[in-house]
Amino acid sequence: MKSDALRGHLDALLLATLDGRELHGYAIIEALQLRSGGALDLPTGTVYPALRRLERGGFVRSEWSTVSGRQRRTYKLTPSGERELANQRTAWREFTVAIEGVLGSGPWPAKA
Amino acid sequence: MAGQSLIGDYIDRLGARLDGPRAAKADLLAEARNSLDDAASTYRDAGFPETTAQARAVAEFGPLSLIADEYQEELAVAQGARTMRALLAAMLVVHLLFMGRWPTSPSWVPVLASVVNYAWVVVAVLGVLALVGGPRLRRCQRSGRSFGRLAGSFSTGALTACVVLQGALITATAYFNLGLLLSPAILATLGFGLVVMVRLVGMTRRCFTVSAAA
């Protein structure tokens, strides 16, 4: 999938990846690729500024900690981030239902 | 090892393109380095030779111009926040140092001193709001450079107000009570204020240059 198409959804994807867990940057990238079956193709370096942007917005919190014997910055959702993720999920469901209704191959509804 | 230099070279070239507070820059580069090392390690574990593993890690990380541009956004935020914190701290210290030192006559001088006091309270409240709320503004979330420029503009306004208002008080003191102005305590306070002002002007200027860099 083109990185340009992904950029508009990157913040929501990162919030979803951090749902219920604390991960460091590269683990977030691996989780994104794993969950998408490798279809999400974006420069991995762009994930870190996006995470800082989310931190600036109060949606994630980060700290340096030792993971597998190495110092890494780990990220987790804040309560505000959890609410934002729920909002993003709702908006996405509404969007996909609307688009599927038009682009999907099912029969057109009869006129009222 | 030749392979090791690929990631090192990338980090060095990225660092050379970035401009901003040293600690924030080192923090970003350390995280980038960790990510590249992790990626290279994953490829090594998959059986790729060292050089290929690092070359893949660097290629995946992204073109230098794109990555530097995005990282610079964060450095603009860091510079803006640093300047705002320094401005607020300096305003508090300088205000406390000057408080109660102005002449009591003619009657308009204490009035002007009160206006200056209230002006500082307003600037301090606005400054704290900008520092805390600015990075969360939608526009500043999209672009860290916007926050850098916002901080630079706020600091410019606050420093201009400081020059005008404190300047008026200093001029009045010089005119009506030169002896007071030339007292060692006031001269030392003025000297300190001047040093702080020069430093803050430099930091304010950096807000704009860091926001325009890369």
TrEMBL record, chain A:
Q: Which residues form the Transcription regulator PadR N-terminal domain?
A: 14-86
Could you tell me which InterPro entries the record lists for this protein?
Metal_resp_DNA-bind_regulator, Tscrpt_reg_PadR_N, WH-like_DNA-bd_sf, WH_DNA-bd_sf
| Highest taxon above the source species | Bacteria
Q: What is this protein called?
A: Helix-turn-helix transcriptional regulator
The root-end lineage is: Bacteria, Bacillati, Actinomycetota, Actinomycetes, Pseudonocardiales
Automatic annotation (TrEMBL), chain B:
**Keywords on record:** Membrane, Transmembrane, Transmembrane helix
Which regions span the lipid bilayer? 86-102, 108-133, 154-176, 182-201
Output the superkingdom of the source species: Bacteria
In its UniProt entry, what is this protein called?
Answer: Permease prefix domain 1-containing protein
Q: Which organism is it from?
A: Allokutzneria multivorans
